[in-house]
Each structure stands twice: as C-alpha cells, then as structure tokens.
Design goal:
Layout: E1 6-14, E2 58-65, E3 70-76, H1 78-89, H2 101-112, H3 120-140, H4 144-147, E4 155-161, H5 165-170, E5 175-179, H6 187-205, E6 210-214, H7 221-235, E7 239-241, H8 249-258, E8 264-267, H9 273-282, E9 288-289, H10 298-311, E10 315-316, H11 322-329, E11 338-341, E12 358-359, E13 368-370, E14 382-383
Parallel strand pairs: 4-5, 4-11, 5-6, 6-7, 7-8, 8-9, 9-10
Antiparallel strand pairs: 1-2, 2-3, 4-13, 12-14
Helix pairs in contact: 1-3, 2-3, 6-7, 7-8, 9-10
The protein binds the ligand C[C@H](O)[C@H](O)CC(=O)C(=O)O and magnesium ion (MG).
Subunit structure: Homooctamer; tetramer of dimers.
Site (Transition state stabilizer): 339
Active site: 319
C-alpha cells in the first residue's frame, strides 16, 4: 500500500545533554579526568570538554509526510550536520515514499562518499535514516521493533556505564562499565592507579558482578595488553573496551591475540558502515561490536552490520543509543543485552539517556525493560516542547 509521501525535512539543533550526552555541566562523572587520546597533552587531561568533546551538540531530524505525520530522530552533530541534512540529504527524501529506506540510504551514502564515509556525515545520514524509520512506524501504526521482524524475547537486560558500578549493582543492572582515568602519558603511577581503581570496585561489587573498562581510544597495544592482563588475572575484568584508536585494526587484532583467554575485547562505538565493521570481523579485532545507532549509519545500515556480525559469531551490543538500541536489540539473537549510559552527574540514579530532550523515553527498572514498554508507533518517543531547538538552515 502506498504511503503518504514526504513533503518536508527539517534539521534542528540543541545544546545541553540530549543526544550529545558529553555536553553536560560541570561536576559530571563523564568529564572527570577520563583517559583519552588527547591526554598526552597535560592541558587537555583533566576535562574532555577542554579539547572540545561537546562542540557539536544535538541534531534533531524531522521528516513530515503529506498527511502531516512526522517522524523524528536525534543524534550528535549539531549545526554542521544540520547543514548537510538541509542542503544535501533532503533532496533524496522530498516527494518520496518513506518505505523506500534502502534506496534513500544508498543515495545519501554514495552522494556524500567523496567527503563522508565516517564521522559527522554518517551521523547526519543516521539521523535521517532513524527519522525515516520513526515516520514509517507512525504511518503504519507499528513500533519499529515490529517492522524489524518482532522481538525475540520479552524483556531487555542492561549493564550500566558510569563511575559507580557498585551503585549500578544496587540498581539491578547485570554489570557495570567504568571509565579508565589514566593514559600511558601518566606512566607507571597512572597504571597503578588504574589497577587500584578496578580492584577497589571489584571489592565493592563482589566476584560475580560483570565489571568492564571503557578506555575511549586512549591506549597503545603494549599498555592495553599489560592493563588487560593484570585486570583479568587480579580482578576478573570481563572486557576491555575501545582500548586503542578505531583506525588501528592491526592493533586491535594484536591486542585480541594478547589478552588472556576468556577476556573479551570490545570496540566499534566510533566505527561506521558495513565496510568499517567488515574490517573488524575479518581482521579478528574483537569479540563484541558496539555500533552507536546514531553514528554507524542508522538502523538500515545496522541491519547489515548485524547480519555480518552474526555470520562471524560476534555479538552486537550497541553503544548507548537509547530507544534506537532497545527497538533493535530485542529483535536480534546475537544482541543478548544492552548498554545503559548513566546520565546522573554522580551515576547514582537512572536518568533517561537523552534527557532532557525526549518525552516518554523508556528506562530500565531493576536493570530490565519489558518489550511491551516499546509498543507504540515508531520509536514511541516525542520531543520535549520545553527544550529550545533552532533551525539554522531553513530551506
Ligand atoms: C564513559 C566513556 O568514556 C564514554 O563517555 C561513553 C562510552 O564510551 C560508552 O558508553 O561506551
Ligand atoms: Mg565506550
């Protein structure tokens, strides 16, 4: 059945939390001396905002059909992504049937390939793609997970990312992933502090709780190997995440060969498209891939990435992504659990990941979410009318 055609595409931007979840005010755990590739420069070590982690802000894409039905999605990208959406990508949507998401994705990707392929442009494409899925769900009166073939389980189980895995355990999560604080530039003392932090957390959470470490691209293979080996042997660390640069596929392959048998190497949060993930699979870089659905190419591309992962016996546990993750994870056998990023400043309470941008954003209770909570048309969320959004490039 032909659907109402697309009549307008709007790109809006906003600041302060939302999809750019690093854009938090002072005192937040997410900006507390976290190890990064920029930590080799002492002046950019204390705070990620000091080197501009939050310069982009949130991008909101709205796609309106001729009957007035509007789908929307949020991602990181702000003003530069809004320009790309309004001035380049919109042309592939106006007058088209929203069910043509394959052709639309293909045209968005190949028309921008000469300046795109990864990063900001793919964030913009992801935002458009997710807004299209939201619109499709609303026009068909079905949740996105139903459009993907339906849930394969009745509830989602979550681990939490934040500074306090011990509190995450009390809140019912199955595991806790904490940020690494000291990079190689902080030498042996930094390494000792990193290990002491993991040890301290292990003693607080007990031996059976999953404990993981997020290194946010900050290490080299040799440091990561030493850290992983000791953290596994001494404290039973379950996985080491994004230890080195996402461009260093060779380094990931080496790290995976180096870590103790049983320990997991995870990455992919800053990887994009089926071609990027194919490198991770074919080079045996990791055990779990963690695409961010707003950064990897959107849902249309994630379905391809996930099928590739399945064929390589890899798990897909998306990075953050809130509702975009929940609607996807519940439909895949090789996505057995999901991440929840703790947005409370001291990681002591559950706050919706994209707070304050959305209304009705579901959150886990006792570390779990019933799939029935997702049973609303599209992704089942609305924009919060109290959040100020601008449209910098009205067409
Ligand atoms: C905590 C990490 O440094 C980052 O802010 C979030 C992340 O990488 C993750 O949730 O995974
Ligand atoms: Mg991560």
């Amino acid at each position: 059945m032909a659907l109402s055609k697309i009549r307008s595409v709007r790109a809006l931007v906003g600041r302060g939390g939302g999809a750019d979840y690093h854009d938090q005010s002072g005192g937040h755990w997410i900006d507390d001396h976290i190890a990064t590739p920029m930590a080799r420069y002492p002046e950019y070590r204390e705070s990620r905002q000091s080197f501009g982690i939050n310069v982009l802000g949130t991008l909101v894409v709205e796609i309106e059909a001729e009957d007035g039905t509007t789908g929307f999605a949020v991602t990181t990208g702000g003003v530069p992504a809004a320009y790309i959406v309004e001035h380049h990508l919109a042309r592939f949507l106006i007058g088209r049937d929203p069910a043509e998401f394959e052709k639309i994705w293909d045209q968005m990707y190949f028309s921008t390939q000469y300046y795109g392929r990864k990063g900001l442009v793919i964030n913009a494409i992801s935002g458009v793609d997710l807004a299209l899925w939201d619109l499709l769900g609303k026009l068909r009166g079905e949740p996105v997970h139903a459009l993907l073939g339906g849930a394969v389980r009745d509830e989602l189980q979550f681990y939490a990312t934040g500074a306090r895995p011990d509190l995450a355990k009390e809140l019912g999560f199955v595991g806790g992933k904490m940020p690494l604080h000291h990079g190689p530039a902080e030498g042996e003392e930094g390494l000792a502090r990193n290990l002491a932090g993991i040890g301290e957390m292990r003693s607080r959470v007990g031996k059976d709780f999953w404990l993981m470490l997020d290194c946010w691209m900050s290490l080299d293979v040799s440091y990561a190997t030493r850290l992983a080996t000791r953290a596994w042997n001494e404290f039973g660390l379950k996985w080491i995440e994004e230890a080195i640069s996402p461009d260093d596929y060779w380094g990931y392959a080496e790290l995976r060969r180096n870590v103790p048998r049983g320990m997991l190497v995870t990455t992919g949060e800053h990887e994009a498209t089926r071609w990027g993930f194919r490198m991770l699979f074919e080079m045996e870089c990791c055990d779990i891939i963690q695409p961010d659905i707003g950064w990897c190419g959107g849902l249309t591309e994630l379905l391809k990435i996930s099928a590739l992962a399945d064929a390589h016996s890899k798990l897909v546990v998306p990075h953050g992504s809130s509702v975009y993750s929940y609607h996807f994870v519940c439909t895949r056998h090789n996505s057995p659990f999901a991440e929840f990023l703790m947005m409370h400043p001291d990681a002591s309470a559950v706050v919706p990941m994209f707070h304050p941008l959305l209304q009705n954003e579901p959150v886990p209770e006792q570390g779990r979410l019933r799939i029935s909570a997702l049973d609303k048309p599209g992704f089942g969320v609305e924009l919060n009318p109290d959040v100020a959004l601008d449209r910098p490039f009205p067409n």
